[in-house]
Amino acid sequence: METNPLLARRVIPTKERLQKALVVLLLTAGAVAGAWVVAGASFEFDRRYILALAAMAAFGLSLAAYFWFKKEERATTKENGVLIRRRIDDDRQGRNWISRLSYNFKRFLTVVVILIGLLIVLAGLGVLCLQVFGYLKTGNWKSVSTLSVVSPLFLWLQNPQAWFGLHGIVRNMLGILPLSLALVLLGGLVAGFGSALRQRVSG
Length: 203
Hints:
Elements: E1 9-11, H1 14-38, H2 47-69, E2 72-74, H3 78-92, H4 97-138, H5 146-150, H6 155-158, H7 164-176, H8 179-202
Antiparallel strand pairs: 1-2
Helix pairs in contact: 1-2, 4-8
């Protein structure tokens, strides 16, 4: 097998081709059956609905045939060559396409965690911008504490039955901490955690 980044070529094992084709066939059958059940599990369908089901089945069969008859992968760009070389290395080390799929899914999840963290940071900055806008418009600074947002979500913060000392400390801390700063800190922690997970997965 050629491993040059621009000329890399990988022969796809028969087992992998069969597994991919069967997975697509099972997903297609499940999708068609699910659509049929949702429609009432009746054979008296509108012609357009039947055509939609037939198109779904035909697409699934075509995709399964593609995976079955695709016997090799050839690189057309340097980036594709790097990916194919990795798959060749996986074949040599006994790692199958399912493990690669799991790896890519884990990387996707880490990206989602990072994006959630960034969105939380943006929410904090948005709260701050609204406060600044309100101050410039009215001349009065409207402070928003973290306690005012968190307190309705936790009954213990409103009416503690135990740990009264801890309750007082937590309420004082949340009352002092601005919501905008709390969101920025929380978002930074979430994004940092996602970035660390991504490096761990990539490593």
